[in-house]
Amino acid sequence: MYEILTRTIDAAWAILYEAGFYVVFGLAAAGLIHLFVSREWMVRTLGGRGFGSVVRAALVGAPLPLCSCSVLPAACALRGKGAGRGATVSFLISAPETGLDSIAMTWALMGPVMAIVRPAAAVLTAMTAGFFETLRDRRMPPAEVAAPACTICNSDDCEHVPRRSRWGRFWTFVLYDMGDDLGPSLALGLALAGVVGALVPEGFFERYLGGPWASMLVMLAVGLPLYVCATASTPLAAVLLMKGLNPGAALVFLLVGPATNVATVLVVARMLGKVSAVLYVGTIAAMSLVCGAAVDLAVGALRVDVVSHEAHELVPPWLLAAGAALLGVFLAWSVVRWAWRHRPWGVLRQPGGPPLTAKSAKNAKKD
Question: Domain containing 127: what range?
């Protein structure tokens, strides 16, 4: 038992050491995007009901630091501001499937090939689903546009709306918003990756799952109901690759896990209808299999090493260690906040807000 625990900790630390610097860099970049990309600009960019808005929604959503839970209110806000059904679905897929933080972590753990293929496949999947929904959108009534937050200048972001200082908003977003959305799930992902790395023998998937299509179907079945963000799924997928999983199956897991879960499907059904929810899940499942098969064919034909660690040669060891330490502190902070927020007694005071009981905090999170 002690040996298994030691191997698990060693495997988790190895992943933390390799990915820490890149994830911290991705978190900082995500905070800057949150700081300088306003919701008004997104609404102007993603408005309309044509195919162009679908493409823009996929490209805008790809780098944004939104996980599978935080993307839901953002998509609802875009829909309420007049974005078309196709643009809403496109944004709802591309934003959680990839982001600057998850791309940085993919580069660290899997190398440049998967770091390029993953966002490209996410954007392609988002545009495909958005195009299908746009074709249906032409027969649907336009969405009701919500009123702006400020009645003085008809804007949601102006001098009349109270706001924190710029860097105050940066640190609040990184430490609290991303910490609550990303931290606990990433810590769980690292722990699971450590367990898999310690317990699963080399070549396990090649021996027991058979061909690549069987592996992709298994990853599809695992990823569809799973509630995991793009960054948290990355270390688990990296360890599965090291244990013999084919790259196409790993890509299927990375695409399906963040974008399809019960909460997301229910929101899509309530916002766009049951047919759109079925089309949403079906398109993601089909496109993930197509992209996974294409990656397997390309890797086999070109003999590309998918799991590459050449990127670490560009960063000195002391910087990798510092990044691992910073990420470890961030994860510890997030897990402590999660445990404090879900404790069955006392109150939790949110930054800038009134104290919440454990029950009201849980209800507020659901809303």
Answer: 2-336
